[in-house]
Amino acid sequence: MTRCEVSMVVEPGSTQVTKTGAWRTFVPVIDHDKCIKCSLCEIFCPDSCIHQVEGNFVPDLDYCKGCSICAHECPRGAIEMVLEEK
User: Taking the model in full, what pTM does it have?
Assistant: First the structure.
């Protein structure tokens, strides 16, 4: 039997020291009217780049890699991933 090694994120927020947003293809757009403030996007973001600002959740695009986990986890479909124009 061969040994299988799996790579994974050990600690969320690992990109807090390195801006990674420059190579993103899709960007999260949050519909604040649909948002129920459940915080799931903030909790599940592997880069800890979604924060609550003045009552609304906002992605820090300097660190967002466009992975779409936030959109997938949103129970109300309030986050849409759109092609980023550069």
Answer: 0.76
